[in-house]
Backbone:
């Protein structure tokens, strides 16, 4: 799962990033409106943690940009503004949740996970599809009760494909979702082919039918 934190208080930004990395999320962080626009224009995220008071712009305008462009990234606002009107305004503009500062990182974590349950698993921790059971937070995968041992990146790849089921996703989109801005220094996305090959092999070895289709010249599709 991939998170973007938009927060201009650098110590808080660092703390949130470190916390979610320990929770095995891929977590990027930016401290300005300008950098945030660059990220949300070029990448998609499972969840965006958004401070609305930024030194060079208003975070609510970022939220409006996301929703006006039909981007489905989940958004949790974090703000020192705690009036009812501020919370209502943020939620009406399209935020999924609103958390006032100061807060415990464990509460933020719980809210992020609740958002992801609603977004991907209809309120549950587990995605179930075609006999596959994917636990989003223990990061375990089973096929008809048999555990399939995946690496961290293979798990993220499978979850991303399922979240985009019946849609073709390119190697570049997969690479950017799993590795974020690290892809900017990569000479190619060939490593996606090898990770996909290993994932498909492990699913097949454990009895799962071929649910990942290679669409030549375009990318891959989880078919159901």
Residues:
């Amino acid at each position: 799962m991939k998170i973007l934190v938009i927060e201009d208080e650098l110590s808080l930004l660092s703390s949130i990033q470190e916390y979610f990395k320990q929770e095995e999320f891929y977590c990027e962080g930016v401290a300005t409106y300008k950098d945030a626009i660059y990220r949300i224009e070029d990448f998609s995220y499972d969840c965006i943690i958004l401070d609305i008071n930024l030194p060079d712009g208003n975070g609510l305008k970022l939220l409006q940009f996301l929703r006006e462009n039909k981007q489905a990234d989940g958004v949790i606002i974090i703000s020192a503004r705690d009036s009812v009107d501020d919370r209502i305004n943020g939620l009406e503009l399209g935020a999924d949740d609103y958390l006032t500062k100061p807060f415990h990182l464990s509460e933020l974590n719980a809210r992020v996970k609740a958002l992801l349950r609603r977004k991907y698993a209809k309120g549950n921790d587990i995605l179930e599809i075609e006999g596959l059971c994917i636990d989003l937070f223990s990061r375990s995968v089973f096929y008809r009760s048999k555990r399939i041992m995946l690496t961290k990146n293979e798990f993220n790849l499978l979850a991303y494909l399922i979240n985009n089921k019946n849609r073709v996703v390119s190697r570049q989109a997969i690479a950017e979702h799993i590795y974020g801005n690290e892809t900017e220094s990569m000479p190619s996305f060939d490593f996606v082919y090898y990770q996909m090959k290993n994932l498909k092999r492990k699913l097949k070895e454990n009895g799962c039918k071929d649910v990942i289709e290679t669409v030549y010249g375009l990318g891959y599709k989880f078919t159901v």
User: Anything to note?
Assistant: The mean pLDDT is 88. The domain at 126-222 is CATH 1.10.10.10 (Arc Repressor Mutant, subunit A). The longest helix spans residues 105-120.
